[in-house]
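Supplementary notes for students who missed Thursday's class. We covered one full example, reproduced here. Read the sequence, then the structure, then the short commentary at the end.
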Amino acid sequence: MMGDRLFWKLASVGGMAVAAAVGLLGSGHLQAGTIAYQVPYGTAGNQAWSGPLGLDFNVQGTILVTHLGVFDDGSNGLSRNLVAYIYDRNSPASPVVSLSFPTTDPGQLIGGSRFKPLPTPMYLPFGFQGSMVAENYGAEERNGNSGGATPVWTTDSGGGALAFVGGGRYGSTQGQYPPNPDGGPANRYAAGTFVFERAPIAYDVKLGTVGNQTMTGALGLDFRTNRPLVITHLGAFDSGGDGISGTLAVKLYARTKNNTDGLLLTSLSFSGTNGQLIGGTRFLPLPNPLVLPGGFDGSIVMEVNPSNPNGNSYGATPTNWITYDGG
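Structure (token representation):
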């Protein structure tokens, strides 16, 4: 599942008024990622702050982080050993991921920042509230600080997958979350950055979502493919993210033209904490990935039970789950 990229579009997606019950994960060709905080080549630093400098962001659609990066003062190599972190702002005791950028192994220069790949790419789910932090700048390797003005460095949300929030944050103790808010803008510093991909999850449920309906039966969400795609995983909504009671079956059907019945193509069973939890959904790989042609009419269905509440928007636009058509 790590590194999969989706080349599909879903059209005529129905049923979101019914339930956030199931998930689909697709795959395709891996494209170059998006750099969240982008610094132009040759940008010079203007501040020698050795403590941690943070830039806050919210995830508005699940992403896969593949690289961390640090600002390179003057784009001429690192003269100090730097460290980059991503913190969860709601649980900042320790970072969720970190990478070191020593002067002897500074990483690849792209624009005005240096990047290194994560040993294992990391999903940040819809609803995650993070801070991109870098530290140990100094007189030999300065960070950038816009001082409240609009900086020459920019942000890229990846088509709305991220929201850049707050006014920057700083601290004086290295290796710790920077607790002090600064005066903005949201990309106040040239310091840490990361590369990400939008995760190929068709029905994306926010981290921590709790179900609001208990029932026995089956819930389905209909979709149509606008191009060929490959389904690699199925997913089941896990209310509260604390494990599934009993067993839930998730099934993928081909819908018939009269839309009254369907042909079962594949299915998986979910119980307990088996499967990878991404946001509010647990995913398991299909034994054999399923190729769907363009123009395919399908339905992803979960057979529910009262021990596992599903989500139901009751006709309103849901805020805790979204759809993604592959971009």
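Commentary. Confidence is low (pLDDT under 50) at residues 1-21, 27-31. The chain has two domains: 10-28+206-323, 34-198. If anything here is unclear, bring it to office hours.
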